Amino acid sequence: MTLALAFLLMLATVPLLGGDLRRLEDVRLRFVWLAVVAVAVQLALIVVAPEGDSTGHRVGHLLTYVLVGFVVVANLQLRFLWVVGLGGLLNFIAIAANGGVMPASEGALRTAGLDVRDEFTNSDYVENANLPFLGDVFAIPDGWPGANVFSIGDVVIVIGAFLVLHAATGSRLFRRGRAQLVANE
């Protein structure tokens, strides 16, 4: 939910910075259907059926990152997509190091008004977490829109998505570089 709100806010910045959202029609992504499958699997694991085989849920969660990682690698020609991939890799490392769950700090969970859960969730408190600094250690406070916990990987993903979006839509942030590139050809 938090990332979805961030992406919506990002879309609003495009016209403000002189970009044209219609240019997104020209972006051609390969294997995007795998990313859709990954999101559907995560929703199934977290929302539809969080109870059940914990090992299966954890393996499924890790596999969703592998699927999205494949999509990122297949589309690295898209300017700045590597930054999004780096954020995803940081999250994958934290999740893999903790048995398929993103470790969240108790303080961040408390700040966001979230409880430790007894069923599978993609992010939760992990006792003696490995690489806890890569986990969900930041929080949007309870009572704010999108109150939740997030990681440094999530921050890198949002920064990368912002860069990809503005480069693809030709916002003022990237026009000078594009003009120089055309002049050099």
Question: Explain this structure to me?
Answer:
The radius of gyration is 18 Å and the shape is globular. Helix 3 runs antiparallel to helix 4. The chain has a two-stranded parallel sheet with strand order 1-2. The chain has seven helices and four strands. With 185 residues, the chain is mostly helical. The model is unreliable at 178-185 (pLDDT under 50).
Largest sheet: 2 strands, parallel
Count, helices: 7
Q: Secondary-structure element order, as H and E?
A: HHHHEHEEEHH
Q: Name the structural class.
A: mainly alpha
Low-pLDDT stretches: 178-185
Number of strands: 4
Question: What level of helicity do the residues show?
Answer: 55-70%
Average of per-residue pLDDT values: 89
Rg is: 18 Å
Classify the beta-strand content into a percent band: 5-15%
Keywords:
185 residues; mainly alpha; two-stranded antiparallel ribbon; 7 helices; disordered C terminus
Q: In terms of topology, how is this protein built?
A:
Blueprint (H helix, E strand, L loop, with lengths): L1 H15 L15 H17 L5 H21 L6 H17 L4 E2 L2 H6 L11 E2 L11 E5 L7 E4 H18 L5 H10 L1
Parallel strand pairs: 1-2
Antiparallel strand pairs: 3-4
Helix pairs in contact: 1-6, 2-3, 3-4, 4-6
